[in-house]
Write a structure and sequence with these properties.
Blueprint (H helix, E strand, L loop, with lengths): L12 E3 L4 E3 L2 E3 L3 E3 L2 E3 L2 E3 L2 E4 L4 E3 L2 E3 L1 E4 L2 E3 L2 E9 L4 E3 L2 E8 L4 E3 L2 E3 L18
Parallel strand pairs: 1-4, 2-5, 3-6, 4-7, 5-8, 6-9, 7-10, 8-11, 9-12, 10-12, 11-13, 12-14, 13-15, 14-16
């Protein structure tokens, strides 16, 4: 029976303040960013951007908590939480969204199931001449 790789320790990955990474980051677990990343982040767990953290790129994860800055797209399958100190410049796609007063967001946002219900779809045009 094949089993997906799971890290034995459940400690989150951490990128500390004063650290800058240029490149993509992939992880099966959670990650906390207090430094700067120029690149994409792909996590099967939770992504936390601390108040000093800054990301320039795309983030794909299951859950996210932003207190720092994001310049790019974010795609969260479950819950995205924007703290009062967060600054997001880019597009958001998420299942659920929590925004604290004071958070700054500039871009587009789409939430939940993105399929248009049949009742809201345009009726087919009848082209008869």
């Amino acid at each position: 029976m094949a089993k997906n790789f799971e890290p034995e320790n459940k400690l989150p990955n951490m990128i500390g303040q004063g650290t800058k990474i240029v490149g993509d980051v992939e992880t099966n677990g959670d990650i906390r960013i207090d430094g700067h990343i120029e690149g994409n982040i792909n996590s099967k767990g939770k992504v936390v951007i601390g108040s000093n953290g800054m990301i320039k790129g795309e983030v794909i994860c299951s859950n996210a908590e932003l207190a720092g800055s994001l310049n790019g797209k974010i795609n969260v399958s479950e819950l995205l939480s924007l703290k009062a100190s967060s600054k997001v410049n880019g597009d958001i796609k998420t299942g659920k969204l929590n925004i604290e007063p004071g958070a700054i967001f500039s871009g587009t946002c789409s939430m939940g199931n993105q399929q248009t219900p049949a009742s809201q779809q345009a009726p087919p045009r009848d082209i008869k001449k």
